[in-house]
Amino acid sequence: MDGIDRAILRKLQENGRMTATALAVGVGLTLAPCHRRLRELENNGVIRGYGVDVDPAKVDLGFEAIIFVTLRDRSSMKDFEREVGEIGQIIDAQRLFGEPDFLLRVMASDLPAYQRFYDDVLVGLPGVEKLTSTIVMKNLKSGGRLPL
Amino acid sequence: MDGIDRAILRKLQENGRMTATALAVGVGLTLAPCHRRLRELENNGVIRGYGVDVDPAKVDLGFEAIIFVTLRDRSSMKDFEREVGEIGQIIDAQRLFGEPDFLLRVMASDLPAYQRFYDDVLVGLPGVEKLTSTIVMKNLKSGGRLPL
DNA sequence: CCATATTGCGCAAGAATCTTGCGTAACATC
DNA sequence: GATGTTACGCAAGATTCTTGCGCAATATGG
């Protein structure tokens, strides 16, 4: 993990489908060593995979909400985590220290669809004591590019 | 945008660097039409780009925090948004309806590094009235894969 | 200080993949 | 039932990937 490796990761964060040839030029190497470094980063688990940035609005997911969840007790924690993992509309979930216990990010088509999701799914999650739901007005930043 | 297009997006969410040939097999097309659909999805802005999933811990960013920000007044809104956009350690930022005004996600090496970032950068952002900072204990889900 | 090991680079060539022009079939429109 | 539209599959030239090999630079040990 030196500066060239970080440069490779930076370039790939900008364009994950960039050809190894273009990548090599961008980081000042020839194709072969650049290619080997890339494989190494993949094998070491530095690169966990590749993704695509899909515009949510273009696939009928124009509505986004943040939900703060507090659980009644620790005993439902496992069940809660398992169910959250299985629900595709929850695209992001963290367990936090302190209050609230969890932070969820949910995608839906629109407000009515979200309301149904809230009533039918969220309130039924195991051990939920309190749900606070906040609508996202604007996404300033997303995609999770790391500062390298 | 039909079922095949959604299948293409699903496959690419699993592996954004998948070859068009493998993609074609996966969605039940031959190479050529699959390739053209992919280009079309890119040109229509359905696909905004491609990314790489880097393990934060492997690049010395093993610490993650969520920050709730409330601003003193609307007048600093623009300045606040601009500065947030320029800070690389803030990897995610949303403006919300109601309280709090903003939700930020911050990456750092460790707790001491985060404390310095908090004191030197976060408290100095324009118009900040209240900052509530919560440490992420566990990432249940991330990467932002959409349900397609 | 020199011999040897290790690491990482560049070159090159065969394999795989991409890209695109073209012809054809399926479906809709009138 | 004629015509237009859309999307498919085939095929071939261009590009890109993948890997074996040799060489140079920096460490390691006598």
UniProtKB/TrEMBL annotation, chains A, B:
Keyword vocabulary terms for this entry: DNA-binding, Transcription, Transcription regulation
Domain of life where this protein originates: Bacteria
InterPro entries from the UniProt entry: ArsR-like_HTH, AsnC-type_HTH_dom, Dimeric_a/b-barrel, Tscrpt_reg_AsnC-like, Tscrpt_reg_AsnC/Lrp_C, Tscrpt_reg_HTH_AsnC-type_CS, WH-like_DNA-bd_sf, WH_DNA-bd_sf
Organism: Paeniglutamicibacter antarcticus
Name of the protein this chain belongs to: Lrp/AsnC family transcriptional regulator
UniProt keyword Nucleotide-binding present: no
HTH asnC-type domain mapped to chain residues: 1-64
Gene3D superfamilies for the chain: 3.30.70.920, Winged helix-like DNA-binding domain superfamily/Winged helix DNA-binding domain (1.10.10.10)
